[in-house]
Amino acid sequence: MSSSRVRPLVLTFDAFGTLFEPRQSIGQQYADAARTHGLTGLTNQHVEASFRKGEGRGRARLVEPANTVKAFQSSTKDYPNYGKAAGMDPRQWWANVIHSTFSAFLTDGTTVPDELVASLFCRFSSREGYRLYDDVMPFFKQLRDSRSTASASRSDLSRVQVGIISNSDGQRVSSILDSFGIYVNQTGHDSAVVKSTKCYDIDWVVTSFDSGHEKPSREIFDAAKALSASISGGDSEYLHVGDSIKEDYYGALEARWQSVILDRDGKHEGELPEATRVASLTLLMQKLIDSKKS
């Protein structure tokens, strides 16, 4: 981050693995839901074997049990970006993944109940399936207080615009954050509404599904910048925060944004300049405050 900031700041975050993570393992949650809906003969370990962790915390990927397909990977290959180009909506795409996940565990004559598909989609659209990292709510409460202070001066955080840039499928990010009490403006490009008197914690969300591009491509950051500019006029400074070096850090740099890696586990120590790595959102807030004082 620069030592002097005259222009207003546009501060964006990755979502999964940065603000929240699965409440329990994906496999356990899938298995629990399956048993609730009458599927038998499987254990948490059976379903957990269908998943593996991808790059970054909270990013689940499916792997191959002994006799089934790689459901998530297969769907991603056949229908990239949650089926956007194929005209699928996210519910259809996830239904395919869920059916493929459980197909190896079905006995003759049984099928994956539609109710199971619906319940899993709902679970992973809210706090039922996820937990916030401990530093997230305090960060947004402090930022909320700064942004809502009527007498705030130009030197503090009152003019920060906050967004989400996520490789995700439409509205789930907004609904997950809303369920935790982090309020998201879901009015899209209607800048008049964005500027309303209602206090939002997140001014807008840009997802790969809606934009048609995934991080680290420059196009998704350009889409976010264009949306931001429609609200603020464009004379802003841009800072992106995430947990993936490839998708978030270098993706933002390639788009000519500033970027910071949120490295809670210290796994990227020594890989990046220390000024571009923080161990918590608490430390990020202090950096923002210090930069405003400079």
Task: Describe how the helices and strands are arranged.
Layout: E1 9-13, E2 20-22, H1 26-36, H2 44-48, E3 51-53, E4 60-62, H3 71-78, H4 80-83, H5 90-103, H6 114-123, E5 130-132, H7 136-147, E6 161-166, H8 172-179, H9 191-194, E7 204-207, H10 208-211, H11 218-232, E8 237-242, H12 245-254, E9 258-262, E10 277-278, H13 281-293
Parallel strand pairs: 1-6, 1-8, 6-7, 8-9, 9-10
Antiparallel strand pairs: 2-5, 3-4
Helix pairs in contact: 5-6
Task: Give structural notes.
The chain has 13 helices and 10 strands. It has 294 residues and is of the alpha/beta class. A 6-stranded parallel β-sheet has the order 7-6-1-8-9-10. The longest helix is centred in the C-terminal third of the chain and has 15 residues, at 218-232. The termini are close together. Residues 52-69 and 189-197 have low confidence and may be disordered.
End-to-end separation: 12 Å
User: How would you characterize the largest beta sheet?
Assistant: 6 strands, parallel
Number of helices: 13
Spatial ordering of strands, largest sheet: 7-6-1-8-9-10
Helix-strand string: EEHHEEHHHHEHEHHEHHEHEEH
Going by helix content, strand content and strand pairing, the class is: alpha/beta
- The low-pLDDT segments are 52-69, 189-197
Helix content: 40-55%
- Count of DSSP strands: 10
What number is the mean pLDDT?
A: 84
The backbone outline, from C-alpha atoms, is elongated
Radius of gyration: 20 Å
Task: Please indicate the percent range of residues in DSSP E strands (runs of 2 or more).
Answer: 5-15%
